[in-house]
Write a structure and sequence with these properties.
Blueprint lengths: L4 H13 L7 H21 L15 H5 L7 H15 L14 H4 L3 H13 L12 H22 L10 H10 L11 E4 L6 H9 L5 E6 L2 H13 L6 E4 L9 E2 L2 E2 L2 E6 L31 H10 L1 E12 L8 H11 L3 E6 L12 E7 L3 H5 L4 E6 L5 E3 L2 E3 L2 H13 L8 E5 H7 L21 H6 L2 E2 H5 L2 H6 L1 H7 E5 L2 E4 L6 H6 L2 H25 L8 H16 L7 H26 L7 E5 L16 E6 L4 H8 L1 H27 L20 H12 L8 H40 L2 H42 L4 H21 L5
Helix pairs in contact: 1-7, 2-7, 2-10, 7-10, 8-9, 8-14, 14-23, 21-22, 21-28, 22-23, 23-28, 24-25, 24-27, 25-27, 26-27
């Protein structure tokens, strides 16, 4: 049975709750990731001959399970993991996290309970990797990446360096052309590999397995990188620990080893890079050395020295390397003159966990360097600094941002001069003195919105402002005439009232007709993709699958001017990450009939206040495994849904009458004021019932106002309660009918429901909303212009004078002389 990645992520993060609070995320990550690694290799390799990882007797996850509740559990867990490390020459790599540590896990029973609970979490069904082959193990590797992102976020500014965001890693991998390699002996290297995420993303881009080499200064982080490689099915990759400048681990006959590709996200502006430095010819041929207290160019020169004559590299560095002076300027001039820099990509600020400063990607290419050396060459630049989304305390690149950067760079697209352009060497060297600061070449700022003094004085909306919306008027020529009329030479006036602007746009026939192009483009994509979507099986390559789907979608929307096809791409990819990838994964391993299955939903466990054993999780509902209940209800039970909606409307009306009655009779001194619960806005129904019973015994002629109010309240409350009960019963009956319907579904029905009622329905809603925002953009701008020039200065002055006269007259009437 397939594991859904989001379920796996949830369970993994829950395992962190066992340790959260007792230690910093930068520490407890090592324990969680170590256990995940041991569980995975046990399930995948235990008992297999010639496996990538040898799981010895006494060194498996099963041996950890046997230690549960053992008084020596911490010490014996360390020994078991040490056996696994020894059997695979990974001592000092995967056994750095010590579980026998009183300072972290407490003493005696505290340690036993914590470690027993931690091991128990990894015994859950969703961690049974022997039954679930995890799609080439991508889901597990991605789970590892998910944890490292979470750990980096929690670790804070000073301890996030071990992780490069996956979005940035993918850009580096794509812009250096790894997807086009043909030589199976290709090598890739990262001299500051951290947890290995950048290396893995880059290697994944190649069409076949390539040789991986990484070096990381921190021993513990190097261990994370090695485990990361194994979990991504790249166990043959090499990770070595040591200082890249004082003790480089990859040498060839006493010189630095050369590689085909290099990717790196080294620590920015490293101050102590010269400690124990061994040069290995890194600075040969340059007039200067990198500054002793800033290692940015030291990394850059190390990478260049580590590249083969045809090698290519992409490195992330702070923007300062583009324009700083003195030794760095000299080095920059030399590197530019050699033609090594192919491109520069400016990234948004606050992307990385170790720093909030903006960074850039420097793309280097030795193979075609000669073409860039003379004045006929140049450097391709992109300013992507404005394209991102806020994600908690950090900024994050969206799928659309990644795709736009990559497509623009690879295809050298220059249709937007505020985003990218090819900059000739003459402009770089002569005009700007080798300064590569991106704003010198790309002005990505918004044009200033100028005010018209003439319009403020004499009225009207400047024609230039109206004509700035030309892209819309070209598509909807009648809309301009519907909204504006000539006022005077060079100025327009609104033809409709301000509050009618949005309606006029949305109801415009040309605007509505253009929406059909959105429908037609999506229908064309769905028609072309339906066969692919309805025939998912175990042979499907999930990565290629979504690439083909997204490229096909972009092609259908590329010609629609008012919807950015990068935004359309984002809608699909966001839905893929949130929902569709899990669905495809389930179909790949369990088939379409998984759509007939339902899963129970349990209330999240919580520890009792007395610290005793947790209660059994409580079942609180159910949901379709692939097809949500809402889809089944919408398709098969529309009549029942409509009946419930009508009943809910009746309930709402009854509750509204009750609330209105209570409000009328709850003021100070009113009847119901005496029946309010203490420290609550609710009424004491029991107290009301008792009083009403008492009042009922009086003769009809003696019935008081209090009786009438309480009786009416009781009547209204009873009616609302009964009607709510009817809704509850209707919902219960519908829920049961829907549950029974799942068992009746055929494979053909499931395919149709999944593709046409779930996936396409949700994706189209997202795309449709993009077009809806177009009307808001036009309306917002038109309204803004109308507001700006609605009142001329003379009108305002006259209005002020009028008010001033009125105030003086009022003061005079009150006996004040002004």
């Amino acid at each position: 049975m397939a594991i859904k990645k989001n379920e796996l992520y949830s369970s993994l993060w829950e395992s962190c709750d066992k340790l959260r609070g007792g230690m910093d995320a930068s520490q407890y990550k090592d324990y969680i990731l170590t256990l995940l690694f041991v569980k995975y290799v046990t399930d995948k390799f235990k008992g297999q001959k010639y496996a990538d990882i040898n799981v010895p007797a006494g060194g498996s996850f099963d041996d950890l399970v046997a230690l549960k509740n053992n008084k020596d559990i911490g010490e014996k867990m360390d020994k078991a993991i040490a056996k696994l490390a020894e059997a695979n020459n990974l001592t000092g790599v995967i056994d750095n996290a010590k579980f026998f540590d009183n300072s972290k896990f407490g003493n005696g029973k505290d340690m036993v309970d914590t470690l027993t609970g931690l091991v128990s979490i990894f015994e859950r069904p969703e961690f049974n990797f022997s039954n679930n082959k995890a799609g080439g193990d991508d889901i597990l590797g991605d789970a590892y990446e998910y944890l490292m992102r979470k750990f980096a976020t929690e670790s804070g500014k000073s301890k996030g360096q071990f992780y490069t965001p996956a979005e940035v890693s993918r850009i580096l991998a794509k812009v250096i052309g790894l997807g086009k390699v043909k030589n199976r002996n290709t090598t890739i290297y990262d001299p500051a590999c951290g947890s290995g995420s950048l290396l893995i993303r880059a290697a994944d881009e190649a069409p076949f397995d390539i040789a991986i080499y990484g070096q990381e200064k921190e021993t513990t982080t190097a261990g994370l990188a090695k485990m990361n490689l194994v979990l991504h099915n790249k166990a043959s990759g090499e990770i070595k620990s040591g200082n890249t400048f004082s003790n480089p681990q990859y040498l060839d006959n006493g010189a630095l080893k050369r590689f085909d590709f290099v990717v790196a996200n080294p620590p920015f502006s490293l101050k102590n890079w010269t400690d124990g430095l061994q040069e290995f010819g890194r600075f040969d041929g340059y007039d200067d050395r990198p500054p002793e207290k800033n290692g940015d160019y030291a990394w850059l020169l190390h990478i260049l020295k580590s590249l083969k004559p045809t090698g290519k590299a992409a490195v992330i560095l702070p923007h300062g390397v583009l324009f700083r002076g003195n030794a760095e300027e000299s080095l920059r001039r030399n590197i530019i003159d050699r033609g090594y820099i192919k491109g520069i990509i400016g990234l948004p600020a606050n992307l990385f966990y170790g720093t909030g400063i903006p960074a850039c990607i420097i793309v280097m290419d030795k193979e075609d360097a000669a073409e860039r050396q003379g004045m006929g060459g140049g450097i391709f630049m992109i300013d992507a600094s404005h394209d991102f989304v806020k994600d908690g305390p950090k900024n994050r690149l969206r799928e659309r941002d990644i795709h736009k950067i990559v497509q623009t760079f690879v295809n050298r697209i220059e249709d937007d001069p505020k985003y990218a352009r090819f900059v000739p060497m003459e402009e770089i060297k002569v005009k700007n003195g080798y300064n590569l600061n991106i704003p010198r070449y790309i002005d990505s700022g918004d044009a200033e919105d100028e005010q018209s003094i003439d319009a403020h004085l004499n009225g009207g909306i400047p024609a230039g402002d109206v004509d700035s919306l030309k892209r819309y008027w070209d598509i909807f020529p009648g809309l301009k005439n519907k909204l504006f009329k000539k006022f005077r030479a060079g100025y327009y006036q609104l033809k409709v009232e301000k509050d009618e602007i949005r309606g006029a746009i949305f109801n415009d026939e040309e605007f509505k007709a253009y929406a059909e192009q959105i429908d037609n483009a999506f229908d064309a994509w769905l028609k072309k993709s339906s066969k692919k979507l309805m025939n998912i099986d175990g042979t499907v390559d999930v990565k290629k699958f979504i690439i083909e789907l997204s490229e096909s979608l972009i092609n259908e929307f590329r010609h629609i001017e008012l919807v950015d096809f990068y935004d359309v791409y984002q809608v699909l990819l966001a839905y893929w990450q949130e929902t569709m990838s899990d669905d495809v994964f389930v179909l790949k391993y369990d088939g379409y009939m998984a759509g007939a299955e339902i899963v129970k939903i349990f209330k999240k466990e919580s520890k009792k206040d007395d610290g005793k054993k947790k209660a059994e999780p409580k079942e609180i509902g159910w949901e379709g495994k692939l097809l949500p209940k809402t889809v089944i209800e919408r398709v098969y039970f529309a009549k029942e849904q409509a009946e419930i909606e009508r009943a809910e409307q009746v309930v709402a009306e009854s509750e509204s009458r009750l609330e209105e009655f209570v409000e009328e009779n709850s003021g100070e001194g009113s009847v119901l004021a005496d029946y309010a619960k203490e420290e609550s806005e609710d009424l004491d129904a029991k107290k009301i019932a008792t009083k009403l019973k008492e009042l009922k015994k009086q003769k009809a002629s003696n019935k008081s106002e209090e009786y009438e109010v309480l009786a009416k309240y009781t009547e209204l409350a009873t009616t609302a309660k009964n009607q709510a009960g009817i809704v509850k019963e209707l919902n219960k009956a519908l829920d049961e009918s829907v549950k029974n319907k799942y068992a009746e579904l055929t494979e053909k029905e499931i395919k149709d429901l999944l593709v046409k009622q779930k996936w396409s329905f949700d994706i189209f809603e997202g795309i449709k909303s993009l077009y809806d925002t177009t009307s808001h953009k036009i309306a917002t701008r038109v309204t803004e212009l109308a507001d700006r020039y609605e009142n001329t200065l003379p009108d305002l002055e006259a209005s002020v004078a009028d008010y001033e006269t009125k105030v003086k007259n009022h003061l005079k009437e009150m006996g004040f002389e002004v």
